[in-house]
Amino acid sequence: MARAAVPVLSSLGPVALDRAGAEPLHRQLYRALRQAVLDGRLRPGERLPPSRALAADWGLSRNTVVTAYDTLLAEGYVTGRVGAGTFVAASLPDAVPGSIPARDEVRRGVGLSVRGRVLAEAPAIARDRVGRPFALGTPDLGVFPFALWAQLLGRSWRQGGRPLATEPDPLGHAPLRAEIAAYLRAVRAVRCEPEQVVIVSGAQQGLALLAQLLLDPGDEAWVEEPGWPGNRAALLGAGARLVPVPVDGEGIDVAAGMAQGAGARLALVTPSHQFPLGVTMSLARRLRLLDWAAARDAWIVEDDYDSEFRYAGPPLAALQGLDGAGRVIYVGSFSKVMFPALRLGYVVVPPDLVEPVRAARRHFDGGTSVVPQAALHRFLADGHFASHLRAMRSLYAAKRTAILESIADAFAGFATAEAGEAGMHVLLRLPPDCPDHMLAERAARIGLTTPALSSYHRDADGTTGNGLLLGFAAHDPAMLDRAVRDLARLVAELPKG
Ligand SMILES: Cc1ncc(COP(=O)(O)O)c(C=O)c1O
Q1: Residue 79 β-bridge partners
Q2: Does residue 314 sit in the same domain as residue 434?
Q3: What CATH number does the domain containing 65 carry?
Q4: What residue stretches are annotated with the HTH gntR-type domain (predicted)?
Q5: CATH assignment at residue 306
Q6: What spatial distance separates the first Cα and last Cα of the chain, rounded to whole Å?
Q7: What are phi and psi of 326, to 5 degrees?
Q8: CA 315 – CA 302 distance, rounded (Å)
């Protein structure tokens, strides 16, 4: 098709692509085109130029344009017909004009603070598409005892009576705090008294709360590279300057952290099961990190988000239990062991921080809703939690074995899985000629949710990792096997070179 027949470039207006910037060009192009769709410069039904033509006009590689188009296609902004071209969708996906302001509008000015803008711009944690294989962090809800849970909620309310309806302790329901302290002491070797346990509305709230309390704007904080976007967003929201510290087979590289950000006030780490690589931090690294924190009076925040599911190796104590200097704050979550929408988690703080945290909770939100806490207390105290955990551990161990077998078979000689010793996902390492973001986008189009490893790197350019994350807990082995084979077929169909 002749380029002159394609009017889209003039209707788009000027588009600034920052070729030297950290954001990959395909992301910038995707955002520019998406914005043009959202604000009506590209109209429903309008044809986008062929990828080759756009690439030539804007001096981009064809892959860059194809990847941007694939993303728009996967998200429903455009439709594609083989041989016919790419068209702006007649009906747009949810949550566009008129509802949530697009990012560029936010930037242009709804009066946000600098930190508000940083938060609005931070990469979103995709909580959509959870019903699809291989969505991350989703437990098998088919086996959760919801009927029992409903009974416990009702009973807690009836038996708790008026005290549950009056002013709550911002630190949480005392019987639940005591139960969690006993559990953490016994199972994770965490050193704590019930008074040090703070109930939060999910680990994410705990991380944001700690960042607000412990960091001043501009303070440096180490984050794992690659790492969980939610961790970064929590720190960014407090105005922190992130120091991305590489992770290797032993966990965060403390020497690299000291070289890059010796003056950091805080390090946020996932020692039991690094997200997303799945490695367990070695004892040598743990001790080194603790020494660094003790010497610098820095904080270590230990995000222990899914360590309950450990399948190999000896039982692993928490980093917090090794800390003789009171520098480690432990964060845990019920999202994986119970269900994500429960929004209950906990933070274990050193005694000196208890009252500042109480004050902060009072000012921020007054505490977490009490009735679910009371029901969760009964769930733990009556032994249901321990038996559910045991059952999930063996169920997920079987699913993990099954998905590893499927991968070994479907990807034989081409790609390998790294499973670590714990958790609910495996990492499929891909060869360099198979870009993970391209595969993830194509997978999305056939109903698979497989985040690209490169998307967890701060610069998202994939230079330090190329792979896909495959959550395995939510689906049965037969479905996982089908999905693994569909993925392998997509790999075979990827354009080479
Ligand atoms: C590494 C990591 N940290 C923290 C969280 C937040 O957990 P929560 O659902 O309790 O807020 C998640 C959620 O998936 C996670 O993967």
Answers
A1: 87
A2: no
A3: 1.10.10.10
A4: 23-91
A5: 3.40.640.10
A6: 24
A7: 70, 35
A8: 17
230 lines ligand 1 (CB under 6 A): yes
- Give residue 72's domain range: 3-88
Instruction: Please give the number of the atom of ligand 1 that sits closest to the Cα of 227.
Output: 1
CATH of the domain at 472: 3.90.1150.10
Cα 336 to ligand 1 centre (Å): 9
- Whether 228 is in the pocket of ligand 1, judged by its Cβ within 6 Å, is yes
Which of 130, 200, 210, 335 has the most ligand 1 atoms within 8 A of CB, as the residue to mutate?
A: 335
Domain end position, chosen among 351, 381, 411: 381
Q: Count of domains in the chain?
A: 3
The C-alpha atoms of residue 168 and residue 204 are separated, in whole angstroms, by: 21
Asked if residue 274 has its Cβ within 6 Å of ligand 1, the reply is no
The reply to whether 174 and 299 lie within a common domain is yes
CA 405 – CA 384 distance, rounded (Å): 32
Task: Considering only the C-alpha atoms of the chain, give the largest distance between any 2 of them, rounded to a whole number of Å.
Answer: 75
User: How many C-alpha atoms does 197 have within 13 Å on its Cβ side?
Assistant: 25
Rounded mean pLDDT for each run of 10 residues along the chain, 497 residues in total: 41 68 80 77 80 80 82 74 72 44 53 83 64 90 97 94 89 98 96 98 97 96 95 93 94 97 96 95 97 98 94 87 97 96 97 98 96 97 97 97 97 92 95 91 93 80 78 96 97 79
Q: What 3-state DSSP class applies to 353? A: helix
Residues 364 and 488 in one domain: no
Q: Which strand (E) or helix (H) includes residue 116?
A: helix 114-121
Instruction: Give the distance (Å) from ligand 1 centre to CA of residue 302.
Output: 12
Check residue 55 and give left, alpha or beta (phi > 0: left; psi -120 to 50: alpha): alpha
* CB distance 203 to ligand 1 below 6 Å: yes
C-beta of residue 26 within 8 angstroms of C-beta of residue 34? no
Q: What is the pLDDT, as a whole number, of residue 100?
A: 38
Is 112 domain-assigned?
no
Atom of ligand 1 nearest to the CA of 303: 3
Per this entry, what is the length of the chain?
497
Quote the pTM value: 0.80
At how many degrees (to 10) do helices 51-58 and 62-75 cross?
130
